[in-house]
Design brief:
Blueprint lengths: L1 H13 L5 H18 L12 H6 L19 E8 L8 E4 L10 H5 L2 E3 L2 E5 L5 E4 L1 H14 L7 H14 L11 E10 L11 E11 L10 E6 L23 H9 L4 E5 L7 E4 L3 E6 L2 E5 L9 H12 L3 E5 L11 E6 L3 E10 L2 E4 L8 H14 L9 E4 L1
Parallel strand pairs: 8-9, 8-15, 12-13
Antiparallel strand pairs: 1-2, 1-7, 3-6, 4-5, 4-6, 5-17, 6-7, 9-10, 11-12, 11-14, 14-15, 15-16
């Protein structure tokens, strides 16, 4: 059945969206996926077919124009537990819709977390994962904050490896992008009174992606937000809660309508201290010193952030995690952002209170280019991993 579903998906992609044949096949796939995607209907993990993956080395995708969006792959991973138990055994399922109670804690009270990591394809056909154990640790920290059960680090990493291997043909060729892997943890059990959900679901799906920003590798133009806050002291800004993201959509939409790439947020108390961009951390460079806001509860401790700090110190830079007044932007030589989705992205300008400040970008002499080259080199296997950050999958 799994092979039939996968081949149906290929047929759907090869047909025009307006044809009647395409509509029929899409309907067939939808019901087949629904019938086989419910974890309650399968007691044992579903084994994907290695032979099928070997026959179709690559999915039928225009790898030069994939952008950063959802492109359904073959499989997702699901694991469940009650609030009084630990996660035990998950399974691969065909990618499809999931059933959930309308009273689920995640729908009613936002009891949910997500993570993001990537698989890269090497020239010899292997897949490489970058520090998934750190995503697992961060999810467990977030789960503790939101009173949720969470998979162990080993369970998390094993599930990420399974989803990457099962969807290998959806991983872009070297240099064309990566397979973005999205682990979710949610209160799926029904709850009416405000309390932790009685059941939790750990789910992972994946999608091939290109550049996060529409500018590609071009420098970003940021807008300093002074009206809306991203997080406040004592809140959940330091964990990857789903509740952190919908509130920033209004500010992002407004900024993008004005021609900016994204929004840079200030502290919620005095609106004078740099915090982070909507989906990534920020760094400023002055001479040989790189500074980034310290993660003091309102800022997410990014895994790319942590890695770039270590790489920068290896390259001889002094890195300071500290409070950074917004006025220091005027004196910065260079600014860049880091994150799983964006990698290391140079910032060309920042606009604050109607004043635009431009920064050094491009060229082999820029700090962001130097750090980006090393980070991507390690992630893709071009540079030897001497830190134990890479997990290889055949």
């Amino acid at each position: 059945m799994l092979h039939i579903i996968a081949r149906l998906r290929n047929s759907v992609q090869s047909l025009g969206s307006g044809s009647s044949s395409s509509s029929k096949i899409r309907s067939c796939f939808y019901f087949a996926s629904r019938a086989y995607s419910s974890p309650q209907q399968t007691s044992e993990p579903i084994a994907y077919s290695r032979n099928f993956g070997e026959v179709d080395e690559y999915a039928d995708v225009d790898w030069d124009n994939i952008g950063f969006g959802v492109l359904p792959t073959d499989y997702m991973y699901i694991m469940k537990c009650s609030k009084d138990e630990n996660f035990e055994k998950g399974q691969l399922n065909p990618y499809g819709n999931v059933e959930i109670s309308p009273a689920a804690g995640v729908l009613n009270y936002g009891q949910g977390l997500y993570e993001g990591t990537k698989a890269q394809r090497t020239g010899d056909g292997r897949l490489l994962l970058f520090r998934p154990d750190q995503n697992a640790i961060r999810m467990r920290q977030g789960a503790e904050r939101l009173c949720m059960r969470a998979p162990s680090v080993d369970q998390f990493v094993d599930a990420v490896k399974q989803i990457a291997r099962a969807n290998k043909r959806w991983t872009p060729p070297p240099g064309k992008g990566s397979l973005y892997i999205r682990p979710l943890l949610m209160g799926s059990g029904p709850i009416l009174g405000l309390a932790p959900a009685p059941e939790y679901t750990f789910l992972i799906f994946a999608s091939p992606v290109g550049n996060y920003f529409k500018e590609g590798i071009a420098p970003l133009n940021l807008y300093v937000e002074t009206e809306y806050d991203r997080a406040s002291p004592g809140g959940a800004g330091g964990v990857k809660s789903i509740t952190n993201y919908a509130p920033v959509l209004k500010a992002i939409t407004r900024a993008k309508n004005r021609g900016f790439s994204d929004v840079l947020y200030l502290d919620s108390v005095n609106k004078k201290i740099l915090e982070e961009v909507s989906s990534c951390n920020i760094f400023i460079v002055k001479n040989n010193v790189i500074s980034t806001p310290s993660t003091a509860g309102t800022i997410l401790s990014g895994i790319t952030r942590k890695s770039v700090i270590e790489i920068a110190r290896d390259h001889g830079y002094q890195v300071k995690e500290r409070v950074i007044p917004v006025n220091e932007l005027i004196e910065a030589d260079e600014v860049f952002c880091t994150g799983t989705a964006v990698g290391v992205a140079p910032v060309g300008s920042i606009t604050y209170q109607h004043k635009r400040v431009e920064f050094r970008v491009g060229g082999d002499q820029s700090v962001s280019s130097e750090l980006y080259s090393t980070l991507v080199g390690i992630q893709t296997g071009v540079i030897e991993d001497k830190k134990g950050w890479i997990i290889g999958i055949d």
